[in-house]
Design brief:
The protein is mainly beta and 105 residues long. The protein has three helices and seven strands; from the N terminus they run E-E-H-E-E-E-H-E-E-H. Strand 6 and strand 7 form a beta hairpin. The longest helix is centred in the first third of the chain and has 4 residues. The N and C termini lie close together (10 Å).
Amino acid sequence: MYGLLNLRGQIVTAIDLRARLGLPPRPAGERPMNVVVRTEDGAVSLLVDQIGDVIEVSQEQFEEPPPTLRAEQRDLVQGVYKLEKQLLLVLETRKLLNLSATGVA
């Protein structure tokens, strides 16, 4: 968990995806962007590096998570879409939002 934020009067938990995925901290001076996910328990803000365009993908581009991912990352990644110049990871949102796994009760 990164902290809390006020989203139009509602207090929302913010989760830093870099920390959750075991990636290095965001470089100093770079501010994260918020992606709000609504769940049965309420809204949660995911802190991400950037937000890209909405794209269409085909099932033929989908593959299982690569074996090079560490076990804790592989558990949070449902699969990968191979795009022309990059990979698009599909995250297991329910597992990602499991706050007990991040040390938050």
